[in-house]
């Protein structure tokens, strides 16, 4: 991989990590409906009715979504370095929804009491 490509890949990784961390810090992955009315359509509220459960730990739920997001992105970056950009893009498109589905299932089964 040429040096210019490495620099672009590192810049992309740093940008994605920082923006996703800021989303987690501001609790933009999942927040109470009172804070953000758009969360009413979130699968955790629509399908699992998590907004009606007592003691939901929003901070930890956001950290789980952050881990799923960064895990899928960093895996895709590794695949891109190892196998090429197209394979990296395909890995990201495969792992990103899978991570979100797994985290949603974990959060739903624990009623928002994730550890």
Write down the secondary-structure element order: HHHH
Main β-sheet description: none
If you compute it from the alpha carbons, what radius of gyration comes out, rounded to the nearest whole angstrom?
16 Å
Instruction: Work out the oligomeric state of the chains in this entry.
Output: single chain
| First-to-last CA distance | 40 Å
- Label the structural class: mainly alpha
Low-confidence stretches: none
- 3D shape: elongated
Strand content: under 5%
Structure summarized in a few sentences:
The protein is mainly alpha-helical and 115 residues long. The protein contains four helices and no strands.
Characteristics:
single chain, 115 residues, mainly alpha, 68% helix
What does this structure look like?
Helices cover 68% and strands 0% of the residues. 18% of the residues are buried. It has four helices and no strands. The model has no long low-confidence stretch (mean pLDDT 89). It has helices spanning 3-25, 43-46, 58-83, 85-109. It is an all-alpha fold and 115 residues long. It is elongated.
Layout of helices and strands, plus pairs?
Blueprint: H1 3-25, H2 43-46, H3 58-83, H4 85-109
């Amino acid at each position: 991989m040429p040096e210019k490509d490495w620099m672009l890949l590192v810049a992309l990784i740093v940008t994605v990590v920082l923006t996703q961390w800021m989303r987690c810090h501001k609790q933009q992955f999942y927040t109470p409906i009172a804070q953000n009315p758009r969360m009413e359509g979130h699968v955790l509220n629509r399908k699992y009715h998590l907004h009606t459960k007592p003691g939901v730990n929003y901070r930890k739920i956001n950290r789980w979504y952050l881990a799923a997001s960064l895990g899928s992105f960093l895996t895709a970056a590794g695949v891109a370095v190892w196998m090429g950009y197209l394979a990296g893009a395909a890995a990201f498109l495969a792992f990103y929804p899978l991570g979100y589905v797994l985290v949603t299932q974990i959060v739903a089964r624990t009623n928002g009491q994730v550890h």
